[in-house]
Amino acid sequence: MSFQDEHQENVSRRGFLGAGSTAIAALALSSVSAVAQQSVNTAKAESDHSFSDPGPENRPLLALNPDSNAPPPTDHGDIGPVWYSFDLAHKRVEEGGWTHQVTQRELLPSNQLAGVNMRLTAGSFRELHWHTADEWAYMEYGNARVSVMNPDGTMFLDDVGEGDLWFFPAGYPHSIQGLGPDGCQFLLVFNEGMFSEDNTFLLSEFVAHIPRDVLQKNCRLSSTDIAKLPTRQLYIFAADLPASLASDRAAIGGPKVAAQQQYTFKAASMPPTVKNAGGEVRIIDSSTFPVSTSIAAGVVKLKPGAMRELHWHPNASEWQFWIAGSGRMTIVMPEGRARTQDFKANDVGFVPAVAGHYVENTGDTDVVFLEMFRASRFVDFSLNNWIGRMPPEMATAHLHLDASTLRKIPTEKNPILVG
Ligand code: MN
Ligand code: MN
Questions:
Q1: How far is the CA of 309 from the centre of ligand 2 (A)?
Q2: Superfamily of chain region 269-417
Q3: Where are the domains of the chain?
Q4: pTM for the predicted model, two decimal places
Q5: Which residues are in the CB-under-5-Å shell of ion ligand 2?
Q6: CB under 8 Å to 301, separation ≥6 — which residues?
Q7: Which residues pair with 328 in a beta bridge?
Q8: Which ligand is in closest contact with the Cα of 167?
Q9: Is 371 a catalytic residue?
């Protein structure tokens, strides 16, 4: 039984809309209009007693996820969890800021990347530390100073603002400090699904757990000096604002100790990779940000009604962070499994490796989201582009459309389609 036959049988078995079910299902399957699709869903939900729910219901949550409550008739089967929200995650609040995380523990299939969202008030530090994973970051708000040292002793110091990125390789010691006027907030992405923000190597714990006499010998300090060192972790803590970037750079030795690599990327001032009336995409990977060898990103803006076209990525699963707006995504998997999920700001989305998907802005404000990959390069295949490269008879045989109808389909990759 084909997917469509099976689907239509399901539709008939549920009995909604009676004899019209085939026509409605065909409309739903062929429609490219989200509005038409949603009105079909709504009509279905309202008229079909199978959707009735005597309760209990978590109404605010249902309202956020209409496509889970009343799935489009094209959804089928189970593809596993594809959604979580930072607003469900425990927040660790310290003097100077807070942090919380969405990892494979929260989103089980996401075994390639994990995310941490962190806030630092003006002057406050995320303590000097390192970890087993590479760290990629997106500045959501405010200003920060970052530092990272190379094994050869050269040091990188820089200031970043909203929209900027950084990348720190695994094991490289680094710090983040909130600057004026109101500190910063940023998303960290790590190339380990099971990464934990609590499982990092801290400067404070390194010195706290070395025998005192060894520390004296190594650092050439007196026992009085040693007694002043922190004896427990600092992690996030309040501090005074730093000197200017220029004077901090000069204070450590100037150009002769400056790192040659550029560990930050001023994405906010980068021209869009693609821009049209539907929005814009900035692709940042090792081709534009050379130190970022293990994490690739797309920063996508969609105007109301616009969509990120039907596509897939051959090299990785996709981890999304939703920065603004509201939208929906459908993911299609083998054996006719498909899931449509709604997203809002601060949500995390997940697309299993190589699965086809789109993202549509269903709200009346701009959608902004990150597409993240554990990969050196951002790579995608466009469905329209693929159809456009099929010889006409091949396309007709597969899609049951004649040559003139096929010519309506755009032939080139276009990440953003106008609504
Ligand atoms: Mn870190
Ligand atoms: Mn994608």
A1: 9
A2: Jelly Rolls (2.60.120.10)
A3: 3-76, 112-265, 269-417
A4: 0.89
A5: 318, 371
A6: 279, 280, 281, 366, 367, 368
A7: 342, 360
A8: 1
A9: yes
